[in-house]
Design a protein that fits this description.
- The chain is 49% helix and 21% strand.
- It is built from five helices and six strands; from the N terminus they run βββββααβααα.
- A hairpin with a 5-residue loop joins strand 4 (47-49) and strand 5 (55-57).
- InterPro entries: ATP-cone_dom (IPR005144), NrdR-like_N (IPR055173), RNR_NrdR-like (IPR003796).
Length: 156
């Protein structure tokens, strides 16, 4: 890490802290040449492999926009969308992979979206699970109903 003041390539870490979201590390550094201190933020890069093979950086905003389309007209707030995007990013980072397929991100959206809003879940799932007929929708709805029954039985 080059010192931003004197461009010396050597510095020492004085303090390290994990950010609130746990996805980055904030480090206080001190230049070994001029003695001045500066802060760096370090994150692990995560790339998305698009269908055409192009690599792009992962973006929570893109996840939010995709989920927003599925949740259009539903009682879902921006904060809810942000929580889904954070859950997706945490799931993806937990795999330890530095590159992930775009389709895998769509599949990672499904569980938190299912918990948030069943209609938005069905809309989103119809794309990422490639529903081809009404039978696919009926199967997904039956799964949702079964999960709801199981939850009710656990709470009783």
């Amino acid at each position: 890490m080059h010192c931003p003041f004197c461009r010396n390539p050597d510095s020492r870490v004085v303090d390290s802290r994990t950010s609130d979201d746990g996805l980055s590390i904030r480090r206080r550094r001190q230049c070994t040449e001029c003695g001045r201190r500066f802060t760096t933020t370090e994150t692990a890069s995560l790339s998305v492999v698009k269908r055409n093979g192009v690599l792009v950086p992962f973006s929570r905003d893109k996840v939010v926009e995709g989920v927003r389309k599925a949740a259009r007209g539903r009682p879902v707030s921006d904060a809810d969308l942000a929580q889904v995007a954070q859950a997706v990013e945490e799931t993806i980072r937990a795999t330890g992979a530095s590159q992930i397929d775009a389709n895998d991100i769509g599949l990672a959206v499904l569980p938190p979206l299912r918990d948030l809003d069943e209609v938005a879940y069905l809309r989103f799932a119809s794309v990422y699970q490639a529903f081809e007929s009404l039978d696919d929708f009926e199967t997904a709805i039956a799964g949702l109903r079964e999960d709801r029954r199981e939850q009710q039985e656990r709470t009783e």
